[in-house]
## 1
Amino acid sequence: MIRAWRSLLPLVLCTTSFAASAGDSDTAHHWLERMAAAMNHLNYQGTFVYVRGDLVETMRITHVVDDGGVRERLYSVTGPKREIIRDSEGVRCVLSDDQSVMQDAMVSGAIFPEFPFEDLSGDAGTYRFETGGTARVAGQMARRVTIVPDDEFRYGYDLWLESSTGLLLKWVLFDTAKNALAKLVFTDMRLGEEVDLRELESDTPPEAFTRLASIMPSHQVKTRALPEWQPESLPPGFRLATHRHQSDGESVFEHLVYSDGLASVSVYIESNTGHALMGAGFNRIGTANAFTRNLGDRQLTVIGEVPAATVQAIGDAFRMPADAR
């Protein structure tokens, strides 16, 4: 197992933005903007069930915004003990030692999809945005919004948003064949003044918590005007979003993020000095796919919540720079 991509998975899963649209996109965009505002600014509390394959987890969340800023507590109701607290003091957690996908998702905040709206100018045809009917979810009326991929290089979402506020009550991640890859649904929900603030207080001893910190200290990270490594081609719609370069004199590490506006894919290129080279191959981590190959004395890993064909296409497009041969 390589050194970087597993520890950086939380960064991968929460790096997302928005994309262009077709059909009844204006209405869909309106609902998604309401969802983003509601998830960040409303007070809400509820129990939800997360399903992926044979994994079924029940969690409870309390999210409050007041004069103290954002305060949130998320903890497991079933299975191994897991708890995340986010407030003005940062993020601290209690996680079990098992390798459940929920561990990574809880830490990263990726349990709930985020669609920021800074840029709505992506390529048309990458996704279709549709609105549907209404249904009852967690005792609330919810409107359906669907994000449909137009090719085999990305996944889609079905979202059910509370009709008055836009709060996300249910989501389903699906592939191009409309097979559900994962889903989350609230079974009960309290809003506004109905939220019990006492549930923000944990019954776990403070010494049991671990404070989360960046695994890549800022003083070690250098940003280049252009990446040293660049692909010869990319799947339709994907563009370079960010990149970072790290060098400590003995090894080199480069991190590039490519996005189509909704899905994002991270590429990690690191020195293999002192480590056995790995052959090309796939790994699956929850709903994310990873592809690894070797280029000379470097190891390249591509990972993202996209189909396996996407990570392989991006990984195969890289060639060694002339000055690295």
## 2
Amino acid sequence: MTKENMNNENVLNEKLSSPLQTEDNVEQQIIYILDTNILLHEPFAFLSFKEHDVVVPMTVLEELDSIKDRRKDVSRDARVAIRALEDTLRDASPEQVLAGVKLPQNDAQHPSGSLAIINDYALDKTAHTLSFNENDNRIINAALHIQKKMPNKKIVLVTKDINMRLKAKGAGLAHVEDYRTDQLIDDIQFLTKGYHKFEGDFWQQIQAVNSETEGRQTTHYVARDTVPFTYINEYLIDGGDTFAGKVTGWDDDNLAILDLGRDRLLAKNAWGIHPKNIYQGMAMDALLDPTIDLVILTGPAGSGKTLLALASALEQVIERGLYDKIIVTRSTPEIAESIGFLPGTEEEKMAPWLAAITDSLEVLHQQDESMHGSLNYIIDKANIQFKSVNFMRGRSIQNALVLLDECQNLTAAQLKTIITRCGEGTKLVCSGNLAQIDSNYLTAVTSGLTYIVERFKDFPGSATVNLNGVVRSRLAAFAEENL
């Protein structure tokens, strides 16, 4: 064993016998080993483990270093993570970095854990379970090494890489977890749908009601416990196909419900498109409402998310003049990191990823061809701009209607980047299918789309609608239900 190996062994043995490792609190103390993708997902993740210790293997630092200069969106997160680690360890000696530097205290009642850098290259390779020629294997081997040296401690490898979690389990690591600090729900079935459906006839379940009519709008005031758990702008429908309304407010006793009228919802029109079911009717109501700044559309492929969003955008930009332009963007299979350096304009390079948008434009053009000019004329008239998510950072978008498609593949941080770009007079429409996630590191419950649905459900300027049902074709509907 080399001298450097012996130093690492001594540091680990010292940590094992430190005051923090006494029998009284052995169950409370956990050592977390972080994978690179955790710090890319959330650069300050190492501060989220409260009183527990955090270890960052040297391989993780090397991966962050190789990513930080790639001119991708994730490169910024790598640089932020590196700076955050450096700020924490700036005044520490090499020995202190190996032993662990105290992290900033979370609160007065809970002591803080420590942050350590472990040189996984210098550990005893003969004891390693996996080959040493892959970065993932070196990180797993480091976790296994610590687990062997500290048998009384709970050693947890934290990674968003599903395959790495499987490899670590197979190699003998007892505890492997996903990073779930930003996960708001445990099961996708609990995700807010944006509407509440009553069994049977709505009015048969109402004991007393006071109604007020102003102009063409009627608001009903019913008992607050009619819908025990509700949110602002949540839609209400019934199984008797007789009622459709929207929650507009409440107090301790009463719930205010705007009567939308089921027939009126289904009769809505945007650029020649009418809703094919009540779910599309609710979505179109939110899309055409100028008081709603954020509309979130979820649902299966073929439910009409993109078509409704685009039709409503054309209607509001060309026919009503509410916005100056339409900005269309979406995530790519690279998680929106880059559109490459080959020749071509941004629109030309984004064309393959935005085929769903152009397909919908062609459908809308055929639908309303008698009233408007060529497809290119419509694109120019509506000032439709195709943009890469990578170039949204730093912008301030004013008086625009922004369509963000396929955002189930974006993280919460990436969606925050886009949402915070929206200035005065801008409306954002986020759509996605949580059953079709292409990202290696996201699941339905950790997707940024799920995150914003839950975060914005109480925001008065937002509305969520889950489009239930496939209307693209009977073939698509059968495939969605049976495959």
## 3
Amino acid sequence: MRNEITRRFLLAGLASVSALPALARAPDRSIRPVLRGDADPLLRLKNAARSVEDLIREAALGGRLSYTVADARTGLVLEARGPGTLHPPASVTKIVTALYGLDTLGADYRFETRLIATGPIENGVLRGDLVLAGGGDPGLDTDRLATMAGALRQAGVRKVEGRFFVHADALPRIPAIDAGQPDHLGYNPAISGLNLNFNRVHFEWRRGGKGYQIAMDARARRYRPAVTIASMKVVDRNLPIYTYSKGPRGDRWTVARSALGKAGSRWLPVREPALYAGEVFQILARGEGIALPAAKLLDGVPQGKDLVVHKSPPLREILRDLLKYSTNLTAEVIGLTATRARGVEARDLARSAEEMNNWLAGWLGTISSRFVDHSGLEPENRASPSDILRALVRAESDGMLPSLLKDIPLRDSRGRVLKAHPLKVRAKTGTLNFVSNLAGYIQLPDGNSLAFAIFISDDARRARIPRADRENPPGAGAWNKRAKRLQQGLIERWAGLYGI
């Protein structure tokens, strides 16, 4: 007699069983026989559920593995391992941030960036000051600023008689998301109410007959104006590769000549994003025939008439990009904006994250997770698979979050994407050095779905990494690849045991 466990059979049987806690752990081995050879992929998946211990042994990661998986509709936990264990959540934090933003701001919320005139326009002359006022838009880029400069000309402005200000007080000014990261990492920029190009500047170099030609520009798809708010100097040394210092008006960088090679480029963080946006707008306005003085920071609420208003895409589209590209600045801006909308004036990320923790506890009930930012970059963030799973199950009912998460490809043993794989996974990755997390939904061939959260971390190896090596420490890349194979093995195991 063949003894086959199906998801529907399991769920039906559970209704008559009172000892629910015992059901949090499923059998370590499938009771189905394992097929050999090149069987149909759907049939192979049904019959190839392996023990968790075999998967862990094969991955050879060390550290800690915690996970939980449940029926996405009912929340019934099917299997778990240390579900309450706290790990660094890394970018899985962005799932919570996305839900926080949706619940507080709404899916149709738009950020606004304004050009404000403090006086009248007479014969093409603005008899007053011009203010570029940010609303926190994390997606504002050089091309959109160029559109605003063109709209300013269409509004009749040919000359500004007064001063040119930038206003960034819609959000607190924060010099870096994580002060413990190396200075040159572009994913750790400053935050303000006026952001541009994810608060990064593009550094490009090319070796010529007389040394290196270098450029620092604010490039987007159509425009790439050179800027002076950030400067670079090539120096003769081996290490460190980069040094940073704050100049009287902008960022001052040096780079080791020995590290450059023939040519290349990278994005560097900007620490004065409002002045960066002001310089770029000044250049773009000049291209429209409008001469502006150098930008100055404006404190207080700008007064005057809106000449141009740029609106961002709706929040749902911003969140889709956030969960696909995992941009830290976007996550922090959304979190800070949601906190302010809740009436809390948070002057730093930790205070804003505390309000997000309060919201999550109210949304889910008691939680053990504690976030100190909205992106997951700070190493002090802690979350449990159980809390993340509960958030996923609650969010599944309205369908918004599953549609925003990105598709996670499943691969064969050689790393090639399996386009015909019977499972579809939509999830958020979370990666730090020796941290690899994955949380989201598994769509089963029968149309039903599972919600899951997998956290893998090796705190001891993380603690041994010097600050200078945090961009790419030895062994981290290979460790992460093995972690991803373990995650896929767990997903296929669960589908084999509970899904088909």
## 4
Amino acid sequence: MLPVVAIVGRPNVGKSTLFNALTRTRDALVANIPGVTRDRQYGISDVGEVPCVLIDTGGLVGQAEGIDYLTARQVHQAIDESQLVFFVVSAREGLTHEDEEISKLLRQHDRPVVLVGNKTDGTDLDVSLLEFTALGMGAALPVAASHRRGVSALMEQAGATLPPADQSDAGDAEADDRLRLAIVGRPNVGKSTLVNRLLGEERVMAFDRPGTTRDSISTFMEHKGVKYELIDTAGVRRRSRVTEAVEKFSVIKALQAIDRAHVVVLMLDAGEGLTDQDTTLLGHILQQGRALVIALNKWDGMEEYDREQVLSQLDRRLQFVTWARRIRLSALHGSGLKELLKAVQEAWRSATVEMPTPELTRVLEKAWQAHQPPMSQGRRSRLRFAHAGGSLPPRIIIHGNRTEAIPASYKRYLENVFIRHFKLRGTPLRIDFRSGSNPYKDKKNILSARQLAKRKRLKKFTKRKK
């Protein structure tokens, strides 16, 4: 196992900036306002000689209530998991009462601590860091995380304390053989509750208030031999209602999670039905070509009449995604989770299915013989063969003559034929046509074979006559 290092401190001292600098990523959301980070964010740092797992945490405040209390619980769990703690303080703002309270808390956890004096750029180190010796944790190590100054020295000091990493486990941790599953939806539809229920622990904060999750949080699980990377995302509201800069970045991170996911679970509030914002999110998922499962959450608290109305609405408005399975579940009580994971695996299998060229061509020929495309300008398109063009989503390339004249209705007919044959469920299918080019299309004064033969006979006759 890789050693674990937790990054703790009060709000807005640069913990997430330090996390990004040490992991060489932008996984942690960074903004110049306190309280942006709330959940634990994990990442791998290879700075220095000892690789380790870093945990970014939210800021600790004095009187923790509501969301601040849940954030503090996440910090305590991160400290319990770690073998070393980076206690980050602000050299620019100096020693505060909150820093002293956090130092007392760290002594209770009995973990080795490295005191990190961040935001040292533009300050006199001898003066700005001297007062932190009153915490009794040794001299603060100067760091400017936003400019990556001092991070190598920080990891060298950490390497002297951390146990050596098991390289065999490190290689397994970096293997990209996991099914990336992104859970997206509007605010307060139960995304974080679903992630916690799947993991069987309070991994991310679930609070009965919209906007609790601000960052995209990745975590790992394994179910029946399948390894997953679960990505909990922030709720996406309508653009007109997004006013804070932090929320704009949260929306960007959620859309990025869709882009890098293999399968996307679109969570709907069954009590509210399908809203315009849900269809906007659905459009982005389809544009990226991701496999899709639609989850109707809070299903157990509905009356039978309301359930029938919701299903009728979905049948009417989602006719263009009939291939996506709809799972009814309760993230709070855990009902429907087995069906959800089964639908996710089915969508993943369909999105990565292998389609051999001979089989594709045979299916194409049978479809063409059973129903040929309509004639255009007195001529009919001829489809010759097909081959696979990629996966995620599966793509089929069809070659033939005059394919540009094939109407969209015939393209949908072919899509349905291939979907039924390969038993695809939960993924879109894309078909592209390729026409054979005519080498004489743009050339002028090209004589046909009959004209050439006639010209040769005319030359011979002229020679004889002379």
